C-alpha cells in the first residue's frame, strides 16, 4: 500500500518561485501528474548515509535540501518493519524512535553491510546493531549477507532500497511530481561490490542512478562552488560508519581528485561502541557473571550516543541506564571520553598522512580542510585535524548536508549541463591472481577514472585449454588479503606449449567507479571473449526477482528505461540526418528526399509512441533508405580531402578507398559490453 | 609499467577441465598501440551517426556533432602535444582539462549508449596519456619507445653502467649509516640536486636526439626517484626515534 503524499503547503515559503508554481498545482490523490516538456530531466541528489540520509535538488547551480513535512533536513537511515510482510517499512525518525521499543523489527546502520558477503561479517561480529541470519538459503559460499527481521529475510540491498524509496517519496511530495533519476553518493573508499550493491538498491527503489559520486568529491563540489575556492583542498569526511579523505585540486571549475583514502568501516558508530563498552563495564563491575541482555546493549548504545553528542560541547555529564530492573549511573568527562576514542581518531589522521604522501604533497601544500559528516563535530577530531594540517578546518557548510547538496549539483550538471567538471580516481588497486596466489596489479589506486588497462597473460602448462581469471581489489600482495571481486573461466584456448598462448585481460572502470573485466585469447586469430561484471554475492536472477517484487515498479521500471534509451537513439538519428541534409542536401534528389522524409515522419511518430521495437524498426528503415545518400556524402568528402593532396603523395590506401574502413572498433566493443 | 616479464614458475596441478587456478603474466601489450598510425583513406572516416565524412583527427563530426571513437595515437598526440621531454606541467594540465571538459562521460549522461561508451573509451585513453606524461620516467620511456628503442622488463634498461651502480651503492650505504634526521636531510639535499641535474641532462639529451645517453639517464632518474622513497622511510624512522 502506498502512502499518498499530501500537498506540502507549509513548505512553499522556503522555495524559489520556479518550484512554487509546481507546488501550487493540486492533483487528485494517486494521480500521477503529467510531466511538462523538459521536466522529466529533473534529477535529485541523494546522500545515503550510515546514520542519516538526505535528498536535495539544484536549480541554476543553487542546491537545496528537500525537507520532510516536519521541516527536518535529515532522514535517519533506519527502517522499522511491521508484521504485515506486504507493507512498506517505516523509515526515518519514527523508525529510529521504535529502535528501543521494538529492537527486533528495526534495522539501522545497514550501510556497513553493503556489498558484504556472509563470511565478511564475522569480522564485524558484535559491532552491528542487528543479528545477521546465518544458514539461510543462498548463504552458500560467497552468498550475500541476509538479515532476519520480523519473519522476513532481507538483504542489505533491499533494506537500503526501502530507505531510498522513502527519500524518493519525500522528494516527490515536496516537488509534487515523479522523480526517477538520481545521483547517489558513496564513500570514496567503497569497493566495487559495495558500489554495485548501492546502485542495485536504487534500481529496486525505482531510481535510475545517473552517477555514483564519491562523498568527499560531492562535498568538495558543493563547497568549492559556494565559496569560490581555488587551490588544493582536503576533504575530511567522518560519518557514522565510514571514513574518507580526499585531496582535490580546484581550479577554474575543474575538481580534480589527486588522491583518496579511507576506511569503509570506521566512523562515529565506533565512538558509540567505545563509550557503551565503558558504561557496560561499569554496570557489570564486581559481578562478572552478569550476562548482558540485548536490550541492555541497545540501551547502553543509545546512552553512549547521547553522551557523545553532549560531550561535543559539555565538559562532563552523567547518564543513566535504567533497564532490565537495574538502574546504573555513569559519569563521563571529556578527558576520559577522548581517551576512549583517541585510537580511532589517530587512525583517521594516519590515513590522511598516507593520502597526502600518495598525492606527492606535504600538509603545508593544502590550502584548506573541509569537514564533512556528523562525526566531525567531535572536538578531538577537529583538534587533531587542525594539528595535522596546521590550520583550522572549515565547517561553514552544514557537514550533514554538504554531500547531498554536492550530489544535487552533480545531478543538475548531468541532466541540464554545467561549467564545472569532476575528475575522480579509483580508491583501490585492482589486479588478478597469478601463480603462487600473488596479486598482479593491473590498475593502481588513485588512477583517474574512467580507465582501461590491458595486460597479457599466458598459460603455464603444455596443452592447457582453460584459465581461471580471479579479479581482486586491494593493496596487499597476497590474494587472500585482498577482496575477491569475481572469478571466471576462459575456455577454448587451443592446446599448445606453455607460455605460447596470448590472453589479453582488459579492465575497464567507468565514471561510476564500476569495473568490467574481459578476457580474450588471440593466438590463433580465433578470438574467444568472456566478459564479467563483478558481483557481490547477489545473483542476476535474484535481482530480477526483487525488481519484479518491488511493487510499484513491477510493470514499468525496466521497460520504461529501455523505451527511453530507444527514444534517445531515435533522436540522435534524426539530429544526424537533419545535419546531413543541411550540409549536403544538394546530393539528394527530390524523390529520394521525399522518400526519406516519409520514413523520418514514421520515426518521429514511433518516438512519440511507447513501443521500443517500433522505434528500432524505423531507425533500421531510415538507415536503409538514407544509405545511398550517405555513400554520396562520403564520396564527396574523400574527393575534397584528396584535392588537397598532390597525386604523388597518395598512398595505396588512399586509392583503395573504402568508406569507413578505418573506423576504430574500440567504442563498439564497450557498447556491446554494456 | 607497461612491460611485465614472463615468470616461469613451477606448475601447479590443473583440474579436470584443464582450467588452472592461476595465471602467469607474460610480455605485455602496451595499452596504447605504438606511434604508427594506419593511414585512413585520404584521412577521412565515416561518422558512425550521420555516416558522412569526418576528418580523421576530429573529436566530433563537423556535420552532426556526434563524438567520434578513439583512434590509435601516441600519448603526446592523444593530448594534442608535440613529443618532447620538457612539458611544463601547466601546459599538460591545460590540454588535459580542455579535452576532459569536452569528452568526459559526465557530458554524455543523457546521450545514446554508444556516445557514452565512446566517451568512456576516449577519456580512458586520455587519462592513461596524462598519467604517463606526468611521470618523467614514463615520459622518457615513451619517447625512447617512439624512437624504436627497446625498453626492458622493469620499465627501463638494466643498470649495467658501473659508474651508476657505484653511485647507487654509495648513496644507499650513506643512508643506512645516517645517525640522525639532520644526516638524512643532508643526503636528501644532495640527492635532490642530483635529480634536478639528471632531469636537465635528460632534457638536453632528448633535445640533441642522443638516445643512448637518454636511455642511460632514464635509468639513473628511475633510480633517483626510487631513492626518494627510501629517504622518506628513513626520515619517518628518524623522526619517530626519541
What does this structure look like?
With 674 residues, chain A is of the alpha+beta class. Among the domains of chain A are: 9-224 and 403-415, Nucleotidyltransferase, domain 5, CATH 3.30.420; 430-538, Sandwich (Substrate Binding Domain Of DNAk, Chain A, domain 1); 555-673, Up-down Bundle (Substrate Binding Domain Of Dnak, Chain:A, Domain 2), CATH 1.20.1270. Chain A is built from 17 helices and 26 strands. In chain A, strands 1, 2, 3, 4, 10 and 11 form a six-stranded mixed β-sheet that branches. In chain A, α6 crosses α7 and α12 packs antiparallel against α13 (590-608). Chain A is globular. The model of chain A is unreliable at 1-39, 134-141 and 652-674 (pLDDT under 50). Chain B has 242 residues and is mainly alpha-helical. Chain B folds into two domains: 44-134, Helix Hairpins; 162-240, HscB, C-terminal domain (Monooxygenase). A two-stranded antiparallel sheet of chain B has the order 3-4. The longest helix of chain B has 30 residues, at 211-240. Chain B starts with 18 loop residues before the first strand and ends with a helix. The model of chain B is unreliable at 1-39 (pLDDT under 50). Chains A and B meet through α10, β18, β19, β21 and β22 of A and β1, β2, β3, β4 and α2 of B.
Amino acid at each position: 500500500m502506498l502512502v499518498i503524499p499530501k500537498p506540502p503547503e507549509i513548505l512553499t515559503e522556503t522555495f524559489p518561485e520556479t518550484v512554487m508554481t509546481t507546488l501550487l498545482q493540486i492533483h487528485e490523490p494517486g494521480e500521477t501528474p503529467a510531466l511538462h516538456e523538459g521536466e522529466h530531466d529533473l534529477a535529485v541528489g541523494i546522500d545515503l548515509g550510515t546514520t542519516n540520509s538526505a535528498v536535495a535538488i539544484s536549480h541554476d547551480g543553487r542546491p537545496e535540501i528537500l525537507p520532510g513535512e516536519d521541516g527536518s533536513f535529515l532522514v535517519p537511515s533506519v527502517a522499522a518493519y511491521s508484521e504485515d510482510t506486504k507493507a512498506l517499512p517505516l523509515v526515518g525518525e519514527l523508525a529510529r524512535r521504535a529502535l528501543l521499543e521494538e529492537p527486533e523489527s528495526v534495522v539501522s546502520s545497514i550501510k556497513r553491510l553493503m556489498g558484504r558477503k556472509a563470511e565478511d561479517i564475522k569480522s564485524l561480529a558484535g559491532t552491528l546493531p542487528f543479528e545477521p541470519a546465518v544458514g539461510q538459503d543462498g548463504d552458500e559460499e560467497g552468498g550475500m549477507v541476509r538479515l532476519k527481521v520480523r519473519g522476513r529475510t532481507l538483504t542489505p540491498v533491499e533494506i537500503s532500497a526501502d530507505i531510498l524509496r522513502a527519500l524518493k517519496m519525500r522528494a516527490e511530495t515536496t516537488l509534487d511530481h515523479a522523480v526517477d533519476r538520481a545521483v547517489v553518493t558513496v564513500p570514496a573508499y567503497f569497493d566495487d561490490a559495495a558500489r554495485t550493491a548501492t546502485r542495485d538498491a536504487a534500481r529496486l527503489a525505482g531510481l535510475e542512478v545517473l552517477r555514483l559520486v564519491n562523498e568527499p568529491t560531492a562535498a568538495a563540489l558543493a563547497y568549492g562552488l559556494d565559496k569560490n575556492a581555488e587551490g588544493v583542498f582536503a576533504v575530511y569526511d567522518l560519518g557514522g560508519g565510514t571514513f574518507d579523505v580526499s585531496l582535490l585540486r580546484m581550479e577554474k571549475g575543474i575538481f580534480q581528485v589527486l588522491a583518496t583514502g579511507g576506511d569503509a568501516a570506521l566512523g562515529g558508530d565506533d565512538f558509540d561502541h567505545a563509550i557503551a563498552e565503558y558504561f557496560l563495564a561499569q554496570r557489570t563491575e564486581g559481578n562478572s557473571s552478569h550476562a548482558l541482555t540485548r536490550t541492555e546493549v541497545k540501551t547502553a548504545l543509545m546512552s553512549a550516543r547521547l553522551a557523545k553528542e553532549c560531550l561535543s560541547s559539555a565538559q562532563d555529564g552523567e547518564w543513566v541506564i535504567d533497564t532490565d530492573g537495574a538502574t546504573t549511573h555513569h559519569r563521563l568527562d571529556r578527558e576520559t571520553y577522548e581517551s576512549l576514542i583517541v585510537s580511532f581518531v589517530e587512525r583517521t589522521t594516519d590515513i590522511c598522512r598516507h593520502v597526502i604522501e600518495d598525492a606527492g604533497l606535504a600538509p603545508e601544500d593544502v590550502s584548506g580542510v573541509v569537514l564533512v559528516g556528523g562525526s566531525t563535530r567531535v572536538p578531538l577530531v577537529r583538534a587533531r585535524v587542525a594539528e595535522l594540517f596546521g590550520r583550522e578546518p572549515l565547517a561553514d557548510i552544514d557537514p550533514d548536508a554538504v554531500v547531498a547538496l554536492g550530489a544535487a549539483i552533480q545531478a543538475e550538471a548531468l541532466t541540464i549541463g554545467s561549467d564545472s567538471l569532476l575528475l575522480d580516481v579509483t580508491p583501490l588497486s585492482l589486479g588478478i591472481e597469478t601463480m603462487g596466489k600473488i596479486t598482479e596489479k593491473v590498475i593502481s589506486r588513485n588512477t583517474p577514472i574512467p580507465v582501461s588497462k590491458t595486460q597479457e597473460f599466458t598459460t603455464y602448462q603444455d596443452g592447457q585449454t582453460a584459465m581461471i581469471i580471479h579479479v581482486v581489489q586491494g593493496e596487499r600482495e597476497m590474494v587472500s588479503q585482498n577482496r575477491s571481486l569475481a572469478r571466471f573461466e576462459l575456455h577454448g584456448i587451443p592446446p599448445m606449449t606453455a607460455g605460447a598462448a596470448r590472453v589479453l585481460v582488459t579492465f575497464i572502470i567507468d565514471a561510476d567507479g564500476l569495473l568490467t573485466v574481459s578476457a580474450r585469447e588471440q593466438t590463433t586469430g580465433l578470438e574467444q571473449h568472456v566478459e564479467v561484471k563483478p558481483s557481490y554475492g547477489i545473483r542476476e536472477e535474484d535481482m530480477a526477482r526483487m525488481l519484479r517484487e518491488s511493487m510499484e515498479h513491477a510493470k514499468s521500471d525496466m521497460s520504461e528505461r529501455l523505451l527511453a534509451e530507444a527514444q534517445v537513439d531515435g533522436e540522435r538519428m534524426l539530429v544526424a540526418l537533419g545535419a546531413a541534409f543541411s550540409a549536403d542536401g544538394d546530393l539528394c534528389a527530390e524523390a529520394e528526399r521525399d522518400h526519406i522524409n516519409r520514413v523520418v515522419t514514421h520515426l518521429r511518430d514511433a518516438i512519440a509512441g511507447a513501443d521500443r521495437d517500433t522505434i528500432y524498426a524505423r531507425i533500421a528503415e531510415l538507415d536503409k533508405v538514407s544509405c545511398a545518400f550517405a555513400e554520396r556524402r562520403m564520396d564527396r568528402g574523400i574527393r575534397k580531402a584528396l584535392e588537397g593532396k598532390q597525386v604523388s603523395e597518395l598512398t595505396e590506401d588512399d586509392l583503395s578507398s573504402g568508406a569507413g574502413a578505418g573506423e576504430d572498433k574500440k567504442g563498439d566493443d564497450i557498447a556491446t559490453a554494456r | 609499467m607497461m612491460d611485465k616479464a614472463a615468470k616461469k614458475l613451477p606448475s601447479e596441478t590443473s583440474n579436470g577441465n584443464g582450467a588452472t587456478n592461476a595465471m602467469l603474466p607474460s610480455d605485455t601489450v602496451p595499452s596504447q598501440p605504438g606511434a604508427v598510425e594506419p593511414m585512413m583513406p585520404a584521412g577521412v572516416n565515416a561518422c558512425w551517426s550521420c555516416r558522412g565524412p569526418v576528418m580523421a583527427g576530429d573529436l566530433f563530426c563537423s556535420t552532426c556533432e556526434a563524438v567520434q571513437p578513439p583512434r590509435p595515437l601516441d600519448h603526446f598526440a592523444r593530448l594534442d602535444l608535440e613529443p618532447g621531454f620538457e612539458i611544463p606541467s601547466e601546459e599538460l594540465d591545460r590540454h588535459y582539462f580542455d579535452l576532459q571538459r569536452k569528452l568526459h562521460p559526465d557530458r554524455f549522461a543523457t546521450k545514446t549508449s554508444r556516445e557514452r561508451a565512446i566517451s568512456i573509451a576516449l577519456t580512458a585513453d586520455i587519462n592513461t596519456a596524462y598519467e604517463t606524461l606526468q611521470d618523467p620516467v614514463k615520459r622518457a620511456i615513451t619517447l625512447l619507445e617512439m624512437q624504436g628503442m627497446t625498453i626492458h622488463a622493469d620499465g627501463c634498461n638494466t643498470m649495467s653502467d658501473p659508474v651508476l651502480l657505484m653511485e647507487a651503492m654509495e648513496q644507499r650505504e650513506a643512508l643506512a649509516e645516517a645517525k640522525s634526521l639532520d644526516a638524512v636531510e643532508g643526503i636528501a639535499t644532495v640527492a635532490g640536486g642530483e635529480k634536478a641535474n639528471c632531469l636537465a641532462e635528460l632534457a638536453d639529451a632528448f633535445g640533441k636526439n642522443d638516445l643512448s645517453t637518454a636511455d642511460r639517464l632514464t635509468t639513473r632518474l628511475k633510480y633517483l626517484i626510487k631513492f626518494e622513497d627510501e629517504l622518506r622511510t628513513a626520515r619517518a624512522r628518524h623522526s619517530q626515534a626519541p
